[in-house]
Design brief:
The protein is of the alpha+beta class. It contains 17 helices and 37 strands. The protein is about 30% helix and about 25% strand.
């Protein structure tokens, strides 16, 4: 026996071979058979000269299926069946995509209220003359925590191609609400027992007489077994973009980021919980109310950079930026010739409760991140930031060469002694650190023109070869690495850098929550298309999400005019659309007070303070237990310049929920290109516009060589396809 199995899997092969065939059909060159095996309804897919894979459409629990009726309709098959415990409806549809895709949706209604202590997974690989436990397969990706219900695998013995499976977890919200269960870790398993495991309710019985969807799965079948990392990650992105077409998507709700920015500016500037003093100088705290931990350079820059973007966009000034900017040089250490994480005057306050909370101990990404933000400020004309960046660059290179471009988690800045080598045993260090380092080098090259920096970037990126999904360590850094790789592709025309950028983005989209949590506290905030900060993080985090949003904007800008993977033209703009309407829910005033945790790890929570919670959890868990992160407060300052534009003649703002490129203002006209795929819709709105002002606007869409006027919808918003060219005149 190669793979140990449970009794619920051990008998499946015989059950199907001896079961009753209730229907047969074909999908492309696949033969599909439907079986009633007593306690289960199965669908098997069979490719010529290959193995079979079985999908459990329904499970009867401790009872057999009786009275099974099959109805063939245009585009789908409906199976109605029942047991002594419940009645079931199964709908199998065939959207007609290439490669072949089918969908099965199962609902049940219990005859009486009961508990469900166990439910088997719904995918089992089969053979023709062997045993299930002797089959072999490779699982390329599966759900972690409350991320999307993805499962991507290849069946290698017998050879039967690859399968991308997506469970629409949104559909289970009503059941989870009634039974107080969660869909966390529900899609995955270990070979050969894989697929979706319906969340069992061992404590609260489900009510009788109410119909619940208990599965809504989309399955894409591939003949080939994917092997190369670049093939696996690119095909994952393609498959995800394909199923995205068919899953339900919530309607994004516009957020007034302009008002949020005013609230954040006021609270950051005036609330003492956001500040700590060093001698007579003021610095932002990392978390509201955390006065003990020394000030960090990352925190100051995390707010400074988007604030600079916002002030430049609005043509205004604010004392908050000046306060942060004037003392930034305090973080430069003359002894080692670089910026350091903690303010040198306060390192004695470090409580040593964690490895990095010690003097001169550096978390690898914590050096790269401030360097990147310094370089961005330098490119925006900030001479003080440019000096700090260039004065520190040689130390950063020294560290990279010392570790041969493979960074540990923690090291001593003075001696380069490794404090912690791996994220976990056998997993290596911070895998995306070569990417963030290369990004620093590219920024240095663009700032100075010195070829040595470009050479360093190329050396570092060799460490990303053959990592595939595993490039991903921290979401924001990995996302910015994708943009840096695209920039290097533009510089060198070497296709491998573009393909490596796809690996980075596959890691991002593997770590998103592509479903809406409609149970518990999750009913109070949107979760669709949220992204997790680490591959094993149990919550989404404000700052990392915001930076992923900014990084994907950057990727769209860098790749403008490049023939990138078509799936990215779907996934990136759609992520941006939902992020622009969802990120505001990290701010406590946007949330009901009862869902905010009373116990806080760091600092304090002020529920009326416009400083975001660090952490948003699964629907049954309270949020904000990590703390209220001051360094994430710059979200509105970064969102506004990317999504809003101003028509000065009319004193009217426009908000576009998709990435827009090539803005051009000429007299009484503004035009721009909208990123994305024509299958999906971008929306333009003019917040608070008066009908008299709207009447002056003419919004046109370019079709071939001419423009066609489009009219607003009933909500006074304009809809147009992704990939459009839009012109507005007045």
């Amino acid at each position: 026996m190669i793979n140990p199995v449970t009794p619920w899997t051990a008998t499946v092969q015989d059950d199907i071979d001896n079961g009753t065939v209730i229907f047969e059909t074909t999908l492309s060159h696949y033969k599909l058979r439907f079986y009633n095996t007593g306690d289960s309804i199965w669908l098997t897919t069979e490719c010529p000269d290959a193995g079979r894979i079985a999908y459990r459409l329904a499970f009867g629990m401790n009872s057999d299926f009786e009275d099974t009726f099959v109805e063939r309709n245009p585009g789908n098959i409906t199976i109605k069946t029942s047991t002594r415990l419940a009645s079931y409806t199964i709908t199998i549809s065939f959207p007609g995509s290439n490669p072949p895709l089918f969908r099965y949706t199962t609902s049940f209604k219990c005859h009486f209220s009961f508990l469900i202590p166990y439910w088997p997974r719904d995918i089992v690989p089969l053979t023709f003359d062997g045993r299930i436990e002797n089959t072999s397969g490779i699982i390329h990706a599966k759900q972690v925590g409350t991320r999307s219900g993805n499962l991507y695998f290849s069946m290698t013995k017998p050879k039967n191609g690859s399968v991308f499976y997506f469970q629409n977890l949104t559909a289970m919200s009503s059941y989870c609400e009634a039974s107080e269960t969660t869909v966390r870790e529900s899609v995955g398993g270990d070979w050969p027992e894989i697929g979706f495991q319906f969340p069992v309710n061992k404590i609260k019985p489900i009510p009788a007489g109410i119909e619940y969807i208990i599965s809504d799965a989309l399955v894409i079948l591939y003949d080939d077994i994917v092997k190369k990392d670049s093939e696996i990650t690119s095909s994952f992105l393609d498959a995800l973009a394909t199923v995205y077409k068919y899953i339900p998507k919530p309607k994004p709700v516009y957020q007034d980021w302009l008002s949020i920015a005013d609230n954040v500016l006021n609270d950051l500037n005036m609330n003492k919980a956001c500040w700590t003093m060093v001698k007579s100088s003021s610095f932002l705290t990392a978390y509201a109310g955390d006065y003990k931990t020394p000030a960090e350079i990352m925190v100051q820059l995390a707010v400074m950079l988007p604030l600079h973007e916002y002030l430049e966009w609005s043509g205004t000034q604010h004392p908050l930026f000046d306060t942060l900017n004037k003392n930034l040089a305090d973080f430069y250490d003359e002894r080692i010739k670089t910026v350091v994480r903690w303010h040198p005057e306060r390192v004695g306050n470090l409580d040593k409760s964690e490895e990095q909370k010690q003097e001169m101990v550096m978390d690898s990404w914590y050096l790269h991140h401030p360097m990147l933000n310094l370089s961005r400020l330098a490119h925006r004309g900030d001479k003080a930031a440019e000096k700090l960046f260039l004065d520190s660059i040689d130390y950063v290179i020294k560290v990279a060469k010392h570790f041969n471009y493979e960074w540990p988690v923690f090291y001593k800045m003075t001696t380069l002694e490794v404090i912690k080598a791996e994220t976990s045993p056998g997993k290596g260090g911070e895998k995306d650190a070569p990417g963030s380092y290369a990004h620093i080098m590219i920024m240095a090259y663009k700032l100075t023109g010195e070829k040595r920096f470009l050479s360093e970037a190329v050396k570092a990126l060799k460490s990303l070869d053959n990592l595939g999904f595993d490039i991903f360590y921290q979401a924001n850094n990995t996302a910015f690495t994708a943009g840096a790789l695209a920039e290097l592709y533009r510089e060198t025309n070497d296709e491998k850098y573009l393909k490596l950028s796809y690996c980075c983005l596959a890691g991002i989209f593997k770590n998103v929550q592509l479903w809406e949590c409609g149970y518990g506290y999750g009913k109070n905030f949107p979760t669709f298309f949220s992204v997790f900060p680490l591959s094993d993080a149990s919550y989404t985090a404000a700052y990392e999400e915001f930076e992923v949003y900014a990084a994907l904007h950057h990727y769209m800008e860098v790749t403008e005019g490049i023939d990138i993977l078509p799936s990215l033209k779907v996934l990136i703009p759609e992520f941006i659309k939902y992020a622009a309407c969802r990120l505001a829910y990290y701010y406590p005033p946007m949330l009901p007070g009862e869902m905010i945790d009373e116990e806080v790890k760091t600092g304090e929570i002020q529920k009326d303070l416009w400083v975001p919670l660090e952490d948003i959890h699964d629907g049954w868990e309270k949020s904000g237990g990590v703390g209220q992160e001051v360094y994430g407060s710059g979200m509105p300052f970064g969102v506004i310049p990317r999504q809003y534009f101003m028509i000065e003649d009319l004193q009217q703002y426009g908000f576009l929920d998709y990435p827009a490129l090539k803005f051009r203002f000429v007299k009484k006209t503004v035009s721009f290109h909208v990123g994305g795929d024509p299958l999906y819709t971008a929306q333009l709105t003019f917040p608070g516009i008066k009908k008299s002002v709207l009447a002056k606007l003419k919004v046109e869409l370019k079709e071939k060589s001419s423009y066609k006027e489009i009219r607003p919808n009933k909500d006074l918003k304009f809809d147009f396809p992704g990939g459009s060219i839009v012109r507005i005149s007045w």
